[in-house]
Design goal:
The structure holds two protein chains of two kinds.
Chain A: H1 3-10, H2 28-38, H3 50-61, H4 66-76, H5 80-89, E1 101-106, H6 109-114, H7 116-127, E2 142-143, E3 149-154, E4 166-168, E5 171-173, H8 181-189
Parallel strand pairs in A: 1-3
Antiparallel strand pairs in A: 1-4, 2-3, 4-5
Helix pairs in contact in A: 2-3, 3-4, 4-5
Chain B: H1 49-54, H2 59-65, H3 69-79, H4 91-95, E1 106-112, H5 122-128, H6 130-144, E2 146-153, H7 158-173, E3 189-194, H8 204-211, E4 236-240, H9 241-253, H10 255-258, E5 262-263, E6 266-267, E7 269-276, E8 282-287, H11 293-300, E9 310-314, E10 323-324, E11 328-331, E12 341-344, H12 352-357, E13 366-371, H13 376-390, H14 396-413, H15 419-432, H16 440-460, H17 466-469, H18 474-485
Helix pairs in contact in B: 2-6, 2-9, 3-6, 6-9, 13-14, 13-16, 14-15, 14-16, 15-16
The chains are: A alpha+beta, B alpha/beta.
Amino acid sequence: MSEAVLKELVASPETPGTRHFPPFEPTDQLEAEASRRIAQFPDEHKRSAVLPILHFIQHRHGFLSADAIQWTADRLGIEPVKVLEVVTFYPGFRQSAPGKFHIRVCRTLSCAMGGSYELMDRLCEITGIGRESLDPHHHPIAVSPCGTWSVEFAECLASCGTAPVCLVNDDFHEGVDAGKAKQLLDQYSNA
Amino acid sequence: MPEKQSNSSINTPMPEMSDIQYLEGRQPDARERRMIFRNIDRVGWNPSIDRYLEDGGYEQLRKAMDMEPKVITEEVKKSGLRGRGGAGFPTGVKWGFIPPNNTKPVYLICNADESEPGTFKDRYILHQDPHQLIEGMVISAYAVGAHVAYIYIREEFPEAARTLEKAIAEAKEKNFVGRKVLGSDFDLEIYVHRGAAAYICGEETGLIESLEGKRAYPRIKPPYFPAALGLYMCPTIVNNVESLCHVKHIIQMGGDEYAKIGVPRNTGTRILCVSGDVKKPGYFEVEVGKLTMRELLYDVCGGPKDGREFKAVIPGGSSSKILRCDETFTLKGQGPDGSDKQLTFWDIPLDFDSLAACGSMAGSGGVIVMDDSRKMSWVLNNINQFYAHESCGQCTPCREGSTWMRKISDRLVAGQASPEDIATLESVAYQIDGKTICAFGEASSWPVEAIIAKYREELLAETDPANAEAPRNAEAEAQRRYLQKA
């Protein structure tokens, strides 16, 4: 793989959301969390801790930068590409900043029947996010110009009986039809 | 089976089902039999260990710890419990696959990566009743000789992951988990491990790869079961959340008693998750095989929405083949005198074997209902988008095929498809089916095969021969040229 292609793969383009997240830096808490997670696996299988460490970093820094990938690789004693391949494989990991509030709307059958596409349209309309910027593979993540909001379609959030549903950061919301979009956003913008 | 419940040392006996109050509007249907879901939506219930103990919690663990591990496995075999994750494989038999002369560590993994579209049962157990799962896991780990267990939970359940971490800490404090469980020589650590939003992690070997810190590429079979070679190439048992919860109840009742629930070969209770176009969607725990489609959709779920009629049902998660509500099935040799038996859609009993005999499957229990307002092309396209997004990309037929199926159905819903596209779509599906490392290939192609087989006329009516001559987008034009050359 050429140097340029690799650089592009780890590049984290700036988004309006970047300003809401502190840039990556190794902290004592991160070190403590990494040690705790590594201890959950046999000594020779430290690599197993890659997902929990990446989750911890993404939760604080919004996304996984090249520095974060390098740090994780060093901490686990593996090649950085082994971390990068994990980051690019799992839809739950991001390489650029989302909005301060990241909204994941369930797109799958039961929610779609319950009106999740209409909900997404309405959310985009209110937050000023271009609906066309959402591609079928759910990335890049669409961030509002103010950086407060980002939206993404998620695949089945496993609450089909209360469709349509969505996640806002870690909060789960059910029965959110398009008519409730404004109310949903207000809960956060007024917070 | 050892002692009955009345002889065991229960301090605070579990209340009778009839004494339990449920939240307003969330009362179970009269046809339900709540075992796994007895505490879901219960008035005064919370996920703390104190509340669980007040209700006879961890008594089955005490009982199990006085039994030989082999005896527990035998009880689970006798119970006839079949895995609730989708494949319906007998749980006790799976446990029995650990090599008898094994000297490596054994791992137990709870598959909490609930992500089959239409399925939403584990969510409620994980959020509301975590100790039921932990008790089931400790008993199971003791039975299979595992000293480390992982709960692989999907990333989209952040709150449940925290609830579980807290519950495990509580259980450790009371010595139900940790060193020398309840004063015995048995040690067990349980860790919560979050996935990262990849559906393929529900496939047990993909899950194991993910737990090893890699991309979740399912492993080549054989070996068919991780019980032989699993996590770190050690014997590993992977069980669904609901299956592990059932283990606790099998210990309580005894395998033979448990096997009396449901119907032969399809024992126990099952949580059916109904969503889509019904008046009353939701979760219903029923004895396996005791309800028919008609009873589920009309009596339990209140029938179709006003002014609508039922059109089609996906009976066991989106991977299972769709059934038309006006279908009749011929079951070979199942009549009273060995003759063929005719069965209408409405009379299908909801069990593993009956649904398989009707050409579909009970899968994960996710029943998705569509009424006559739904176009099958739209349903097909929604499903195709899911599988195109979730293919792990390891096998060419699936990686390329799932994307092509999505592209063709995209054209269909946009009114840009030609009649030949339906045949092309069908042929792509059959080129995936059976040609991939894991069952995702079938999961992605079965819905397409079934929808085309059963709704061909409806799909064809949305096509136009003119689209073949004058493709309306660049992709279709490229494909037309390619096919002409071929």
